[in-house]
Amino acid sequence: MPFDLTTAMQERAEQGLLRKRQVLQSAQARFIQIDGRNYLNFSSNDYLGLASDPQVTEFWQSALLTWGAGSGASPLVTGYSKAHEQLETSIAEWLGVEAVLLFSTGFAANQAIIKALLEKKHIQWHDRLNHASLQEAGAQSPARMRRFHHNDMDHLASQLEPETGLIISEGVFSMDGDQAPCAQLAALAKLSGNWLMLDDAHGIGVLGEEGQGTLSHQGVSASDVHIRMATFGKALGMAGAFVAGSRSLIDYLINFSRDYVYSTHMPPAQAAAIADVIQLVRKADDKREHLQSLIRLFRQRMHGIGLNLGESETAIQPLIIGDANQALSLANQLRAQGLWVTAIRPPTVPKGTARLRITLTAAHQQEDIDQLCNALEKGLCNG
Questions:
Q1: Is the pLDDT of residue 256 over 60?
Q2: Is 170 in the active site?
């Protein structure tokens, strides 16, 4: 038997690392239903609460009537429509960049960039906590891969070689919720003559003026970052992703990215609906302000309990437990009280840093935060 699947699964289960899918029986929202029970949801990346917003649903329905259900082809055949072009133009104007290219997922977009750009002669520098899509693409690339300590600019500077490749970081780190020092990254890229790539999947829509993302939030010009990737499946409540940068970068990817050239394109109805959602997001200061007030409240309550959530001031609030089985146990205690919080375990996070990844959204209310904090205090004290 060439593949011993049973032993591998047993070992993962014994380590408390076995994964099982949960079947959602409702729309993604403040409350979700699983196995016939309703839970207050603290495990969603729907940061602005738009995934089940009635207006967003109307955008989808209207777009489907105009554009149909699918694109029917890859973008270089007949899969690129006016809806796609208009969405790309809308994003470019929103973010102040020359051009944009659409992808079906953020994972695919990150893979496309790294695989299309990097050759054996190049070097890539990754933050150690970069998303799996970035690290996997980097490992598969022929370019040499070096990793610098998380957000450690001195360590990065000590590794850099002039004009040899690409510095890669997330804007808001998906498992820790802290932000990259974008101005320092940009300065090091400029000084060394290398390019800088930023994955802003968890910053776009939530941070910055009109939800422009981490760069805007930190006062860094879009022109200081050569490549930016972000997704529509989080704060925008939709699905898909984009790459933003210079016109020459986008033209290059259109010609050399196999992930783009040989994939059926995003449905045009989806692109049209996203374009409408972006206009909502740009005007959603009230949602962003409400979310920030909930984040402050949560951190104050947790500090009062005596827990340190690290440096995150974003919607992602990790409660580090350490042991994977203990993290699972606490998550199960919370579920018994009607709270859905996911335990994140290795290899998603480094060994010994299993955690509850608590995510807050603009759909939550103050009483939700109180309920969660009370349950956490009870569970941790009993544990």
A1: yes
A2: yes
Which residue type occupies 13?
A
Q: From the candidates 115, 202, 226, 364, which is the catalytic residue? A: 202
What is the spatial distance between Cα 185 and Cα 265, in angstroms, rounded to a whole number?
33
How far apart are alpha carbons 146 and 129 in whole angstroms?
Answer: 12
> Is 131 marked active-site?
yes
Active site residue 122: no
What residues does each domain of the chain span? 20-48+285-382, 55-282
Q: What is the pLDDT of residues 260-284, one digit of tens each?
A: 999 999 999 999 999 999 999 999 9
Is it true that 20-48+285-382 and 55-282 share their CATH fold?
Answer: no
Task: Write out the two tokens for 234.
Answer: 């989080």
Indicate the fold that domain 55-282 takes in CATH: Aspartate Aminotransferase; domain 2 (3.40.640)
Q: Is the pLDDT at 181 greater than 70, yes or no? A: yes
Q: Which are the contacts of 189, defined by CB distance < 8 A and separation ≥ 6?
A: 167, 195, 196, 224, 226
Give the predicted TM-score (pTM) of the model: 0.94
Residue 383 has pLDDT above 60, yes or no: no
Active-site entry in 53, 88, 127, 170: 170
pLDDT in tens, 51-100: 999 999 999 999 999 999 999 999 999 999 999 999 999 999 999 999 99
Q: For this structure, is 176 an active site residue?
A: no
Give the model's confidence band at 382: pLDDT under 50 very low, under 70 low, under 90 confident, else very high.
low
> Please, what CATH class does the domain formed by 20-48+285-382 belong to?
alpha beta
Q: What is the per-residue DSSP string for 231-300? A: ESSSTTSS--EEEEE-HHHHHHHHHH-HHHHTSPPPPHHHHHHHHHHHHHHHT-HHHHHHHHHHHHHHHH
